[in-house]
Amino acid sequence: MDGGRIGLVALALVIAVLPFLLPNTYYLNVAVLIGLNAIACIGLNLLVGYAGQISLGHAGFFGIGAYASAILTATYGWPPLLGIAAGLAGSGCLAFAVARPILRLRGH
To answer: Containing domain of residue 82, as a range?
Structure first.
């Protein structure tokens, strides 16, 4: 195993064990929020830092996926994993539909 895979396995183990080690749900909620914000920041870093593109609604699509999964699970009674997958797919399809014409633009 190379270093990247060992780090990924270690991260997965920490995430799996963390709910059992925290004293109450407040700390778990803070850890979940830290993880969500880290995902958004890493995505923005990949977009701006490595690809050199400006962010056009990066957080908006993140929020659309989160809102869709919350509505599907809370209002319509979908299972949480299915709601997350549907929110992810819906937000991804919307981002793809918006990005197709934007990628043809030149300049800002």
So the answer is: 56-108
List all residues 6 or more positions away from 20 whose beta carbon is below 8 Å from its beta carbon. none
Number of separate domains in the chain: 2
Render pLDDT for 3-28 as a digit per residue (tens, 0 to 9): 778 988 998 999 899 889 999 999 99
Task: Determine the distance from the C-alpha atom of residue 4 to the mean position of all C-alpha atoms in its chain, rounded to a whole number.
Answer: 20
Q: Which helix (H) or strand (E) holds 34?
A: helix 25-44
CA distance 36 to 65: 12
pTM for the full predicted model:
0.66
- What is the spatial distance between Cα 32 and Cα 54, in angstroms, rounded to a whole number? 27
